[in-house]
Amino acid sequence: MSGGGIRPYRSDDLARLREICVLTGAAGGDATGRWSTDDLLPDLFLEPYVTASPEWAWVVDEGDGPVGYLVAVPSTRRFVSWWRAKWTPWFSERYPEPEQPYSDEDQLVRRGYDPDVLLTAEVDEYPAHLHIDLLPGHQGRGYGRALIENMLITSLAKAGVPGVHLTMDPANTPARAFYEAVGFVELPSSTPRGPVLGRWIPPRD
Q1: Residue ranges per domain, the chain?
Q2: Which of 70, 39, 43 is nearest to 54 (CA)?
Q3: Theoretical Cys-Cys bridge with 73: which of 38, 79, 144, 181, CB 3.0 to 4.6 Å?
Q4: Is the pTM of this model over 0.90?
């Protein structure tokens, strides 16, 4: 796979990408109906990224519309500042701030109010971060590797970004195997509840 079927994100992709975010949101499986609203996952893990940095989003499209995507930000610190100023006010109009004790959903909602959760201990060494989702029927065709290698890593190297990281659901063991196959390694801030993986990006000559 050389990147065929992959193109830059367009604003008219958003509704379909939000659906894909939900359909892959339970450790790679369908999260439809898991939370009180199916809007929660894309409101946290998709739409803020394409709103803040649409140029860092790519879509897998075999001709009938999106079947997967990668979204990223080159500077997590800048993204957190943007989120606090722009996204938290939007988010807070839609989701009441949880009170203790927190349920699993409350903890997710808290992310919308407190983007500092994105600041892993290694954020200065691996300043970029990403989310990637492909519908199950379209996995194993090389799209994931092409999104990482041909789109994201190439673009980050051109921008002089030294590293990229991600967090993941530990239950998603196929995803863990994929990330390791494309050069990600576990970082020290990982916990059993939240693995953190990073990939160093060598500078361009």
Answers
A1: 6-200
A2: 70
A3: 79
A4: yes
Contacts (Cβ under 8 Å, ≥6 apart) of 100: none
Rounded to an integer, what distance in angstroms lies between the CA atom of residue 133 and that of residue 175? 10
CATH number of 6-200: 3.40.630.30
Encoding tokens for residue 153?
A: 């890593």
Q: In what order do the strands lie in the sheet with 163-167?
A: 6-8, 57-61, 66-73, 128-134, 163-167, 196-200, 185-186
Residue (of 108, 111, 110, 37) closest to 79 by Cα position: 111
In which residue are the tokens 């195997």 written? 177
Count other C-beta atoms under 10 Å from residue 34's C-beta. Answer: 15
Q: Which two tokens stand for residue 44?
A: 């946290």
> In this predicted model, what pLDDT tens digit does every residue of 124-170 receive, in sequence order?
999 999 999 999 989 889 999 999 999 999 999 999 999 999 999 99
CB-based contact 50:57 (threshold 8 Å): yes
